[in-house]
Amino acid sequence: MRKILLAAVVAAACSKKAPPPPPPESPLQAAARSASGAETCARAIPSHWSPSLPVPALDGGRLVYKMFFYGRDGVPEEGFTFHSAEADATLDEGGRVLACSTRAGRSHFLPKSQPKPGVTLDELSRREFELYPQIQDAAQLYAKGGEPAPDAKKRVAAMAEAFAFFVEDGHGPDYRALSPGFWAWVEKNGGRAPAK
Amino acid sequence: MSRLGASAAILLLAAARSAAAPPAVSTPAQITAAAREQVRAGCKAAPKSCAELTAIEAGYRAQLAKVEPCEADPKKCTPELVLSTLHAAEALDLREEALPAEARAAGSGRPLLRLSLLLSKQAVFAYSAVVPDAIGAFMDASAFAPKDVEAACALVPMSDTCLDARQSLTDAQLVVAFADICEKKPPSAPCDFESLEIGGENAEAAMKFYERASAGTNVMMATLFALIKAGEDRLSLLVVKDLKRKGDALEFGLADLSSRLDRGDAVLAASRFNALSDTYRKASVEADRVSSFGYANAADADAFRERVNASATRLAAVRAKLAAASADGVAKGLAPGAGDAGGAPEAIPADATKGSPRAAHAPPPSAIFDRRLIPAPPPEGATAPPIIPGERGALELAKNLYSDDALKAADAHRRAGLSYTVGDPAGRASLVHTQSFGNTCAVVAQQQVLAALRLVPNDDPVKTEEALAAEAVKRGFFKDGTPTAYSADLLVDRNVLVTKRTGAPLAELDAAVRRGGMVIAAVDARYLWNSVVPDRIGHSIVITGAQVDRRGGRTTGFYINDSGTNPPGRGRFIPIETFRKAWDGFTKNYAEVR
């Protein structure tokens, strides 16, 4: 009887389906995630450094994305203390790395990182996945110039809120410095820039 | 012809792989207006030169009027017309240079010079419209880049912009000169990769200074940009040739080695093996470096890495044959090598820290064949540390088989004999220790491989970690951490055969793990440590084995050695769906020890 029961349970267990694959990430998200291992970054950026979110910027009229990398101290059991920006990269719209370099001078420690309350890793991942199209939408509006329509301003504001969720305490100045013009435009159009 | 040749380089702006577009510039109307203004001012300042100044300016405008319609309607022009325009412009340039300083308006950016450059640009566009295939022949911007720089410096003299522009020009000229030398070298004595790498660094510096200078002026230093791009293109071609040469040498050497082995000539094959594994080492290092050159063609770099990886696989197969031949090799004249099973691992030699990343590491100790580099095959019936410690009753086991908790399900499957272990998680579990520094995860990962191969001592793992980190710093593989390009280079440096990939899908990593060797993988460790922070946490771990479902053959999870926790993860089981998230969340790069 026990063997029949076991066999039935095994059959049921083995028939469990694998979870559906996650939706494909955008080229920009893929590029930002893996930038430290790409092209000129692969020689300059320590592989354990964390990548920031990309921020739209205009370079001679051309839309690019700028991001930074940062190291950390601490252990998983006690939590991490992240550093201020220690390296920079510029990506084109397709996610190709255009430039990558480490910063001269010393970085500083941020306040100790705190886990987001009531949020799981899967939730973080989902939010980040949803943020990228918002960033790209805002980027297009920014590059186009002129006054965005009211519904576009709402999208800009929503993007800024979603973006702020991911900004560590103390990284606000680093994000602002990536593209001051973009953040000024965001603030002008109803959103908020990362804290100074 | 030189003016056309130099000016044609401007067209590289449109066609070249561009690291940075040239900055926005004054419009043709503004340039023409500024030139007219210079004539008025120059006539006042130097009345004796007024007639000449007026004639030169009129001459540029007349030539401009000839070529401006060509791009829109090539039928209106002929190649001879465009070439005659450029020849006329060259003559006008000489007359402009002969003007006295007050007439040249040097203090206001030499508008006539800018008009001349505008004419060059329009003529080149016109020529490309009239003779579309001809421009490829005109690649030399050397003559006109100094003029671009001079124009920028005239506008902002004694400024950082001027200094940056001049530095960029110097670096670009170095690259071009170096490319000239290397292109003339015979195939038997090419420029070595280390020199090409230095050339590449000069090209990167030239572009960096160009970008800084461009930000400080609205003079369009188009020919300087073109000169840098032309230098990069030539270096890129030289690098591709070098890669092809090394790839061919590896593959030819492997074919030769295999045929010697097949003929039973194990002694000669062993010495050829050592030489070939040294070629592999250099090629592997080059494959890493090239993939991180901004100007190198990514497809060529990827293709070369694939050739190197394939060579590592074939070398491993040949090595296995050699090992079999040398096992009873005394009779065949093949002496056992140093470091055979039972031999003590060598201490990290003091002089192993010398040299730049480009210098060759000391070769393995003298032996016909270094058997230490052969990883021990994974045991039959491999075992692993418990997925969940403790005893389980049959009913709990049955219940857990169906659990949504992936750890419980995997544990139950294993206990019930419904899955099996590949690799050697139990045997490799003791290789790991908690890393001493926040940035030495990749060093400790490599340390585990070296310890498994008995290439480094591990009785004091912290001391070994420190020594390896110091070695990595001095070899250029480590600065605040290990950049991806240098991952596993402590292994490659010792002629360990490693295949490396970046951007690999999980299925490929799975296939590598299922071959049974040790695999170093870069992951987003938030999913391993359940660290719920918005920051991706990059970390290197060693995959020591996998658990595979007997029915269906699906991998249910990996066993990892994780130096990032205290105590370290020793053969810790990670369910495959959790690992997938950690894998997909980062650079997806791994190194498999063959």
Distance between the termini of chain B: 56 Å
- What is the element string of chain B, with H for helices and E for strands? HHHHHHHHHHHHHHHEHHHHEHEHEEEHE
Spell out the helices and strands of chain A N to C.
HHHEEEEEEEHHHH
Low-confidence stretches of chain B: 4-25, 135-140, 329-347, 349-366
Radius of gyration based on Cα positions of chain B: 32 Å
Largest sheet of chain B: 7 strands, antiparallel
Number of helices of chain B: 22
Please state the structural category of chain A.
Answer: alpha+beta
Mean pLDDT metric of chain A: 88
Q: Indicate the mean pLDDT of chain B.
A: 82
**How many strand elements of chain A?**
7
**Distinct helical segment count of chain A:** 7
Helical fraction of chain B equals: 40-55%
What does this structure look like?
The complex is a heterodimer of chains A (196) and B (594). Chain A has helices at residues 2-14, 27-34, 41-44, 121-144, 150-164, 172-178, 180-188; strands spanning 50-51, 55-59, 62-70, 72-75, 79-82, 87-91, 97-102. Chain A is an alpha+beta fold and 196 residues long. In chain A, the strands form 2 sheets. In chain A, strands 1, 2, 3, 6 and 7 form a 5-stranded antiparallel sheet that branches. A two-stranded antiparallel ribbon of chain A has the order 4-5. In chain A, strand 6 and strand 7 (97-102) form a beta hairpin. In chain A, helix 4 packs across helix 5 (150-164). Residues 1-9 of chain A have low confidence and may be disordered. Chain B is an alpha+beta fold and 594 residues long. In chain B, 55% of the residues lie in helices and 8% in strands. Chain B is built from 22 helices and 7 strands. Chain B has helices at residues 2-8, 12-15, 28-45, 50-72, 79-97, 101-104, 111-130, 145-155, 160-184, 193-215, 222-262, 266-291, 298-327, 394-401, 406-415, 425-428, 441-452, 461-475, 489-492, 506-514, 526-529, 576-584, and strands at residues 419-423, 498-501, 519-524, 538-549, 555-562, 569-575, 590-593. In chain B, strands 1, 2, 3, 4, 5, 6 and 7 form a 7-stranded antiparallel sheet that branches. In chain B, a hairpin with a 5-residue loop joins strand 4 (538-549) and strand 5 (555-562). The longest helix of chain B is centred in the middle third of the chain and has 41 residues, at 222-262. Chain B is elongated. The model of chain B is unreliable at 4-25, 135-140, 329-347 and 349-366 (pLDDT under 50). Chains A and B meet through helix 1, helix 3, strand 1, strand 4 and strand 5 of A and helix 10, helix 12, helix 14, helix 21 and strand 4 of B.
